[in-house]
Amino acid sequence: MTASRYDVVGIGNAIVDIIGRCDDAFLAQHDAPKGHMRLVDPATLMTLYNAMGPAVEISGGSAANSIAGVASFGGKTGFIGKIANDEFGRIFSHDIRGQGVAFAGKPVDAADDKTTSRSLILVTPDGERTMNTYLGVSTDFTPEDLDADMIASSQYLYLEGYLFDGPLAKAAFRSAVEIARKANTKVALTLSDSFCVDRHRDEFLAFIRSGVDVLFANESEITSLYQIADFDMAAAACAKDVRLAALTRSAKGSVILADGSATAIPVQPVAKVVDTTGAGDLYAGGFLYGLAGGLPLETCGRLASLAAAEIISHIGARPEARLAQLAKQHGLVSQE
């Protein structure tokens, strides 16, 4: 790693995940699109919560999960997000700091419609996750919530596409990029969800073309972004807009696009897929850890696949095994 204070700093929604199991009929009954994230109001969230079975509550959020992954590999990390001064805000800050992540988030007074963000994640028997997210106080994220020193002290700034839903948050993204550029901090972006892409396609494209260094997306997100059904054609369009991209394809593995070439990365085998929540987040975390360490892109991809495999082997989007140890066991990093 370099002399920077942080390897990766993330900005995103500070969310507490409420994870439970259900069947496909339950999703249909509650109009929840399987495998996607939808935004819900507090009433809908409580209706689902009351109708579902037992649940587990742990801190989450897409970028926060990725940052926790980098930390589990041994990287120096920070996270910037907004929480309320309530029970879920305390859960989030305690959990992420417990992962070894520096958290820059000052709790604000909670109100009925501005509590800490929550995502009710329903996991079907095939391991697919469907997210029903109440954004709460996260929608109030503004440029004033940025920690300029933390951003400027990092090798990579990692931005979560989900946060793009709020106009003030978009302004915060642009301010964060300005801070990063002045400090020679590289900018990475994850598209987060195809529905999110549908809502902000033109703005995402403009943002990417204006100076994103690293782009993360899955197959449905990248085809949605370019409105091209064929993955290879969408990937070719992506390669013209960004210097480096890591595109995931579920069981087909992933493809790394860099300098006019494409490198295929196979999935890391897993005995049983238990819960796909956070697979893409941890993939990004592994990849960013490798980038910050100056590792070859293929190794970055293998670290990413390793992290994704660990996360889908259990419930929840935070690693249960120490990723640094797994990386050593698979010969991806030095034993020192």
The CATH topology name reads UDP-N-acetylmuramoyl-L-alanine:D-glutamate ligase
How many strands? Answer: 14
The CATH class turns out to be Alpha Beta
Categorize the overall geometry: globular
Unreliable runs: none
Strand order of the largest sheet: 6-5-1-9-10-11-12-13-14
Mean pLDDT figure: 92
CATH superfamily: Ribokinase
Instruction: Indicate how many domains the architecture comprises.
Output: 1
The helical percent reads: 25-40%
Topology as a string of helices (H) and strands (E): EEHEHEHEHEEEHEHEHEHHEEEHHH
Tally of contiguous helical segments: 12
Give a structural overview:
With 336 residues, the chain is of the alpha/beta class. The protein has one domain: Ribokinase (UDP-N-acetylmuramoyl-L-alanine:D-glutamate ligase). The chain is built from 12 helices and 14 strands. It has helices at 24-29, 42-51, 62-73, 87-98, 148-152, 167-182, 194-209, 219-226, 231-241, 279-292, 297-311, 323-329, and strands at 6-11, 15-21, 37-39, 55-60, 77-80, 102-104, 117-123, 129-134, 154-160, 186-190, 214-218, 244-248, 254-258, 261-265. Strands 6-5-1-9-10-11-12-13-14 form a 9-stranded mixed beta sheet, sandwiched between helices. A 5-stranded mixed beta sheet has the order 3-8-7-2-4. Strand 7 (117-123) and strand 8 (129-134) form a beta hairpin. Helix 3 (62-73) crosses helix 10 and helix 10 runs antiparallel to helix 11.
